[in-house]
Amino acid sequence: NRIGVYNSDVDTVSVVRLDKESSQEEIIFEKDVSPGNNVLGIDYAVNNRWNFLILCKDFFLNKRFFFFVDSDNRIRQVNRKTEEITLLDVRWEDNIAFDGEKIYFQDDAGVLCSYCVSEEMVERHESVIMRSFYLQGKCVYYVNCLDQDKVYCYDLRREKEEKASDCPAIYVTGQNGDLVYIGKRDGKEHTIN
């Protein structure tokens, strides 16, 4: 019952909501992903539309949809009421983030893009060309390929960018509520205030 397990022993995939205060678990999504059935000792394969869940490495959700990310970086949107499955036309590399309404990703050219779930549209943020990024609130922190790999902040509301660090970085991420990058020169973690 784990997402991201790559073996044929998995029969069920579940998404579980955990109440942090009471430690109570509630299954909010569960599907049989077994590849076949056995009737009277005879094994036969079944075309199971939920088999893609076996290859999932990540998921996120909002009130209307689950989004499952597989090992080939494809995203399937599952309607929480109708269970309709849609393969999104989103091609991404390295990073992906979700703010509840938009999926942020880096395309194969390194450009920051966002897929609006309600409008089913991709928007390219052409001025943001990056190696990696981290979404924090309404700001995308990223390693800027156009400025010697320094870390920048792109404000999504104002569509403006500003430098967050003068040191070249390999990648940027979040860690324990802090914004952290790995320095290109020293290979060490640095915190951005």
Strand content: over 45%
Mean pLDDT figure: 86
Radius of gyration: 20 Å
Helix-residue proportion: under 10%
Poorly predicted sequence stretches spanning 5 or more consecutive residues:
1-8
Helical region count?
0
The assigned structural class equals mainly beta
Q: Which strands sit side by side, in order, in the main sheet? A: 9-10-11-12-13-14-15-16-17
| N- and C-termini, Cα separation | 39 Å
> In this structure, how is the largest beta sheet organized?
9 strands, antiparallel
**Topology pattern, helix = H, strand = E:** EEEEEEEEEEEEEEEEE
Number of strands: 17
Shape: elongated
Overview of the molecule:
- By secondary structure, this protein is mostly beta strands.
- The protein is about 0% helix and about 60% strand.
- The two termini are about 40 Å apart.
- The model is unreliable at about 1-10 (pLDDT under 50).
